[in-house]
User: Fold these one by one.
Assistant:
Number 1:
Amino acid sequence: MMLDDRNTWTYAQPPMTAAAVLSIGTELTRGELANANARWLGERLVELGLDVVEHVAVADDAERIRGTLLRLAAEVKVIVCTGGLGPTSDDLTTAVVADALGVALQRDADTLAKLEARFRSLRQREMPANNAKQADFPKGARILANGVGSAPGFSVEIKTEKNTARAYFMPGVPREMENIFDLQIAPELAKQVQASTYQVHIRTFGLFESLVAERLSDLDVGGAQHDPQVTIGYRVTFPEVEVKVLAQARDLAAARALAEKVAVQVRERLGSAAYGGKGESYVQYVAGLLRAARLKVAVAESCTGGLLGKLLTDPPGSSQYMLGGVISYSNSAKIRLLGVNEQLLQTHGAVSEEVARAMAEGALRSTEADAAIGVTGIAGPDGGTEQKPVGTICFGLARRNEPTLTFTERFPGSREFVRTYTAYHALRLFANAAKEVLDARM
Amino acid sequence: MMLDDRNTWTYAQPPMTAAAVLSIGTELTRGELANANARWLGERLVELGLDVVEHVAVADDAERIRGTLLRLAAEVKVIVCTGGLGPTSDDLTTAVVADALGVALQRDADTLAKLEARFRSLRQREMPANNAKQADFPKGARILANGVGSAPGFSVEIKTEKNTARAYFMPGVPREMENIFDLQIAPELAKQVQASTYQVHIRTFGLFESLVAERLSDLDVGGAQHDPQVTIGYRVTFPEVEVKVLAQARDLAAARALAEKVAVQVRERLGSAAYGGKGESYVQYVAGLLRAARLKVAVAESCTGGLLGKLLTDPPGSSQYMLGGVISYSNSAKIRLLGVNEQLLQTHGAVSEEVARAMAEGALRSTEADAAIGVTGIAGPDGGTEQKPVGTICFGLARRNEPTLTFTERFPGSREFVRTYTAYHALRLFANAAKEVLDARM
């Protein structure tokens, strides 16, 4: 039993500390300002091992601020709040907190002196009396030093019938908020929280969201618990799908080992669609492969109209692999700029593998590229036929001293969807060509 | 007294309808994704004349979703909710709403058929059984058609002891959410709201934000009150700047007259930079001019790498004016595909007005276009020199039977900024060419 107990304790999911983020300001509820603070705080709280259950933004309304604060104090252990600490009449936070706690406001002499000194040095005159309210704090509050501004934050304990919460209040100015959080709040929370979390991000291209879900289904993808300590999630960042493995354990090393173990399984299931980690886009990944393979490329674009070229030249230094190409949006451009045979266009139509082949070979012939892709298709919304509906795309891949590959795909969706997916599909063709070169060299 | 009372009544701010925005998804509370939907909805609700008192984002947790929904239903008249309508196991919204209302889920045959058809056309096979949950709705719910995706939203009335709220549920995918809100929800809310607001949107391209601010400064731009009933605001939607005139009055006709009066002044100050109204992008505006002028165009792109062609072919039906062109990212492509003289490149460098001219004339020569633009420049982050720093861009505009224009601009900023601004500047050149044709015809 002792052994069992110890094992249970070792592997049990550590109790998570529930937290909420409260943002105060009518500019937020009215949508005049994006709530970047809430996102930043959410991410930092999760990194610290807290369970962020809710974000709330409320207008500058004393009753609503008070009600929200007391509600959250009954529900979570940690409340992190920004905004409403300024000198104007609609900055209500401090007064509302004092009222909610049933305590008086107390002026802090040290803070007042700093505010006055800063005001004089910035504005060359005495501080108006109403600005002094930034030196007021609910009696008993702990003052949180602001390393980059004059108005500090503060922290109080809010007791309700069922629960006691620790609440932190910070200015809404992002760099002041971040300074106070990182230096004054995070160290305290890290001590308090038992669990450590570790995340592995896996970026994919080439499988639709539902197929990613299916492949990972018996790993319980989608936020369900794979194991008491691992959560797998995914999200679409069109046209990519990002997968995330989040592990929790009693220390960082254990969380990391667990996350990486599961990530290996996830990558196996996703095969070649899983291409990279956090922060690397598919375009950057393909650019890296082309550079490594020392492959020079060219394009011949019809329906994408330049998008493939635009993507290939997004990364700095893309002239290392991208030579250029032709936007052959009209038949006349296909004929005159790529040397596509007019008879071929008439016989097979502009959207055909024969024309895609001729476009790719034309781009290869008229540049010094090692590989060229031709794409021709029907992006819509009009122009589809029964045989070639909207979304029908023909690809050609021409390489030096190798037979040209051609094939047809269908990507049904909006014009933007079809064009974007087509360009990414062409990027994948270049990636595969680069991989072949790299494999042959090994 | 009677008169005073009546005057007060006439000009009183109409009673506002309280609204809340509810966002569902652990990716939001964890700060993995910025809550752009909440901001967008907050702004739209305010425009419609509602009083947005709170935004809440909650994790994918049935109890918390349920509790939040019932709490808001007791507090506000309108709840607008996004997220949690997908096919996976952590998409809980629909089931939670049914549970909160105490009704069963009902499968909608029409929605199911559409989901299955879309799945088959995308994936060429039958839809898995679990995807069918997107066709389930709480019994009695009103289905809200999704114009750009397969999963619709829905609307229900939630009765609590003190209050009855109308709640709307939409997918979290922004373009689907925006489509459903604008077409299905906004018209209904507009009818319900007492206050009349009228907005005029003025889209601009060609003036930086600070210059827009300056031009409008004595119209009290920047959200301050110009008049008790008019607010002027602006925001950057790179590379455009959008200006908004929002008027409030006791009825729609009065609000509209007021907004339009101020909008005339705003347009005068902004001159030719003010090109259009809400919902028309600069690309669509330029496409319309090219179509009207029956001008066929071609491009020769170096630093933009295809972006100009991509923008020109974004609108459906762009083959009416866009013939194609060349992506001459390398010197060899400039020489081989555009016939730029090698000596010219050596003497003046690839980034020069001489080369921009040769590129534009090359594109005109090798297509049947009426006008062609050549752009060559240094997008950065590397490659700048003292004489030609990063952001230096040379333009050439070649037309049939007219002398070629060339000039140089500098757009300092990131690689993405420089490339995007360059492509839009080229669009403006095409717009001006089209205007000249139209003027000559009059």
Note: Residues 1-14, 221-227 of chain A have pLDDT under 50 and may be disordered.
Number 2:
Amino acid sequence: MTDRLYAAIDLGGTRTRSAAAHEPPRFERRDEFETPDGSRAVIEAMASSVRRVVADVRAIAAIGVSAPGPLDHRRGVVHEAPNIPGFENIPLAAELSTDLGRPVYLDRDTVMAAIGEALYGAARGIRDFVYVTISTGIGGAIVADGRIVRGASGTAGEVGHWPVDPDGPRCGCGANGCIEAIASGSGIARAYGTGGADDVFEAARGGDERAAAVLRRASRALGDLAVGLVNVLNPALIVAGGGVAIGQPDFVFGAMRDAVRDRAFAVPGRAVRIVPAALGDDSGLVGALAMARERASGKEPLS
Amino acid sequence: MTDRLYAAIDLGGTRTRSAAAHEPPRFERRDEFETPDGSRAVIEAMASSVRRVVADVRAIAAIGVSAPGPLDHRRGVVHEAPNIPGFENIPLAAELSTDLGRPVYLDRDTVMAAIGEALYGAARGIRDFVYVTISTGIGGAIVADGRIVRGASGTAGEVGHWPVDPDGPRCGCGANGCIEAIASGSGIARAYGTGGADDVFEAARGGDERAAAVLRRASRALGDLAVGLVNVLNPALIVAGGGVAIGQPDFVFGAMRDAVRDRAFAVPGRAVRIVPAALGDDSGLVGALAMARERASGKEPLS
């Protein structure tokens, strides 16, 4: 199978990336562009990007596409991409497949990242784990006994939306006190009243007590996330990726590990390791390549 | 198979019940006794109870035992039963099997209840659901795509120990602000300063504002539980059993349903129903009978 070529696209709210590979996780070529507005413009930009990473589109066996949810991975339809204007109920897999003349397989970004980490990253050989992204938002994907937990309508894994503070701030989802509202990059920035979470970390390092208080609250919420996942799901591993986890590892992993040591049940607390995504920013792209390869062979990874 | 006889025991902190059946969920005879102190006394009382529900122990094909966790369901060992003095690292299945001369299969009470509800109760034909018990404590079991989520060390399902309030009361598990500490029967009673949760419901009905405040907080925590389960696991069904759910259904189901309607994501919120355990107090006994029958045939239910 190593002579077959696969492509992957990781659709993001701000930037979209693509890659081609004969044998993931090694990319032969990669590309990146600013995500335009409007679904048609996005799909055309995705097709152009694929054309840039391969010499001949006809050589591609299949294309894997990672996109923000909620989406229908079986039908290849994005229900809603909150950060991409005009992206609602778009049959993304079918449209891109028409444009490129190749089979396209769609799945949620966090599911693709979990597949990437399971096959080539930190979760290799591990049957029970949770992938968590701590970035502008907080999301995830759950793998139980080697299989992705999809849920009744394919939305399982939204670990950032367990409410953890009755007096917590309003969340983008409409509820209040979600982990995402308190501990995501945007939640941290909003609580301090700045444009980005990096400002808050810098201010706290400079001795700003208000910034330190915002981070203490975020740290508590990340701890609640880790303790909750450990007690409720008993994973052998929590893999954390996303901008905040990559940029502030001492903060994120310190908060989660300390909380599990101090507050989780002893048996599952001892059973879990909490580690960074081994593929860093590329977990989703690698997972999408693996998904393309598996589905092209009639298989489905982690199912 | 309908001519084979099965027995089940549901070991509880206060009372233990047993039953015999050729064809669950119908019991032929049942028995109940006050749980004694000390593991040897408990096991002997369990064996006596089984002898009372069958004419001849030798006719039993297998015995299913439901017990509080944490426990090792493969090896049949109870690691710890916090409410039963002297019950620590007890090879319950092996000892009871020696006493009775019949095969014994052990599993956690909430897992047995989930099996009972899946095969004969509210969750028949449903592949993604969560069984929740709201009683002296709060626990549960998760079924994803038709299989029980066990986790890395068999403790998955402790849904009462997701922390939901940084200012919440100390929980029996040692952490603070767990759902169990706020919304279980013992948590409600403790917050009001009384012996039982029933007093608090009665006082609130009589216009006692302090009792009403305790119940508002418990209601919020039950809502957090339902919203969290819906967002993180996307179940088609949440089945709630246990003393508080059975005794105060308007309170428990009102709190959970209203919260999901008002605060959960739209797609998984529409996909879920929240209903009482159809087998009431007997979910665990029925599940243990089914477990005995399945394992005696070399099968394992929901796995």
Note: The radius of gyration of chain B is 19 Å.
